[in-house]
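LAB NOTEBOOK - FOLDING QUEUE
OPERATOR: T.R.
BATCH SIZE: 2
PURPOSE: Compare the predicted structure-token outputs for two unrelated chains run back to back under identical settings.
PRIORITY: normal
REVIEWER: second-year student, initials M.K.

ITEM 1
FIELD SEQUENCE / FIELD STRUCTURE:
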Amino acid sequence: MGKQKFFLGIDPKIIELFNNKDVTGLSKYRPKQVVIEGSEKRLIRDMDGIIFVSSKDGEDDQREKNFNEGDVRQRLSYISGSITNSPHQCGAPCRSKDKEGKPCDKLTFRQNCLCKRQRST
């Protein structure tokens, strides 16, 4: 019988529109529904851009990284904040010379601003 695998994702076009902060493009996004069926793999892209893949015995090579509910919620809040132009305060230990170690007060759409990255030496 084999191993059945499922993948739920988003059309790459939507990801591109998010990354480009193209709110107009997102509001106009209206793809046609696509259904591709084979003996070992079935792919569906719905009209909202959600992609569902069902496959048997490794016929689909999608990434297999699982995110817990908290991670998903956090990632979606960053995307939502970016679209609505609502950044949050970084809060990570600041790396600026005059504020080093204190909570960073910069606004960001990411988890942490660029001050969290390692300094090159």
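ITEM 2
FIELD SEQUENCE / FIELD STRUCTURE:
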Amino acid sequence: MESKESRPGAVGLENFKLKELQDKVDALGREIERGVSLEDFFAQEKILKDFAAKRFPDKVELYGLIYRSRFKRLWEQFRNLKIEFKEE
């Protein structure tokens, strides 16, 4: 039985999934800059976190380290507001 990494196209699929996630993260970052409400942001971020968990189930903890810290930074930078995520 071949490992997932040795299958043809496995790297391409991983790159596609990562680009897909990054595009969604970038879009939510732009929403923060444009003035999305906190309520809408947290609803969208929950959907995004679930999306990431389905695409990368073995790397869920990295989502918080990478993307949630980015969202916190954007809220401070563009909205002058410190936010916290309830699950942390």
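REVIEWER COMMENT (ITEM 2): The mean pLDDT is 91.
FOLLOW-UP: none requested
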